[in-house]
């Protein structure tokens, strides 16, 4: 087992454990902070698997922007401690666990565990990556930019103060 | 030499199942969105590993686009969540079904609210 394999298994175990801690946490703020660590370990995995630019983007976009957005919303909504202390349902967790176990058994059965030789170490040069994205996939870049603009406009529309909106029909 | 491709697949599968289990079991809408993010990341891990396995950069390009989609999804999802929180009292699945169901779910009497999502 090479040093890279040891690093991979350590990082994998760390990211799995941190993700599980995040998703089982009762306190939303703790969950968000655990997720920051999970995204950082995934960025390290990306770096190990030969995607340095994606590792940087993972830290910038996920651990930076997206989790800050989550933290803002948690701090904005959870002023009165709502969303905490709700009873967790044991049966739903049991159902989810059984579902996950069945799916895992299926996946392990479908993939033989030592079928292929270990992956070779390689790094994608950011220059080549950028040339590919801006060359062959320019249309997808434009589509994503349109999508982000649509999301911006939609978020602005939904996020206006309620008084600024036209009156709606009575809610039940 | 790192590890066989299948080990990366297994790690990504475990991540995906964690996210899916959170989406199924958690009631808080923020935790639902976090579960979706975990599933996005599992898919990204598979794409990056496949990119290394077949020495083609297309997988990494696809991860970049998936990140853009995930960012848009989180922005709109969190805005919807804030909107729900304005017109209701708390941001759980039950509040989407109406005030009566929300009261029941908070009391723990009727936690089985997923069937009411279609309203």
Task: Please sum up the structure shown.
The complex is a heterodimer of chains A (172) and B (119). Chain A has helices at residues 3-24, 28-48, 52-77, 90-110, 126-135, 138-159. Chain A is mostly helical and 172 residues long.
Structure write-up:
- The complex is a heterodimer of chains A (172) and B (119).
- With 172 residues, chain A is mainly alpha-helical.
- The longest helix of chain A is centred in the middle third of the chain and has 26 residues, at 52-77.
- In chain A, 71% of the residues lie in helices and 0% in strands.
- Chain A is built from 6 helices and no strands.
- With 119 residues, chain B is mostly helical.
- Helix content of chain B is 71%, strand content 0%.
- Chain B contains 4 helices and no strands.
- Chain B has helices at residues 5-25, 29-53, 58-87, 99-106.
- The termini of chain B are far apart.
- Chains A and B meet through helix 1, helix 2, helix 3, helix 4 and helix 5 of A and helix 1, helix 2, helix 3 and helix 4 of B.
Key traits:
heterodimer; A: 172 residues; mainly alpha; 71% helix; B: 119 residues; 4 helices; 0% strand
SSE inventory with pairings:
The complex is a heterodimer of chains A (172) and B (119).
Chain A lengths: L2 H22 L3 H21 L3 H26 L12 H21 L15 H10 L2 H22 L13
Helix pairs in contact in A: 1-2, 2-3
Chain B lengths: L4 H21 L3 H25 L4 H30 L11 H8 L13
- Which quaternary structure do these chains form? heterodimer
Approximate shape of chain B: elongated
| Sheet with most strands of chain A | none
What order do the helices and strands of chain B follow? HHHH
Structural class of chain B: mainly alpha
Note the gap between the termini of chain B: 52 Å
How many β-strands of chain B, per DSSP? Answer: 0
Q: Report the end-to-end length of chain A measured between terminal Cα atoms.
A: 63 Å
Most residues in contact: chain pair = A-B, 90 and 77 residues
Structural class of chain A: mainly alpha
Low-confidence segments of chain A: none
Instruction: Name the helicity range of chain A.
Output: over 70%
* Radius of gyration over C-alpha positions of chain A, nearest whole angstrom: 21 Å
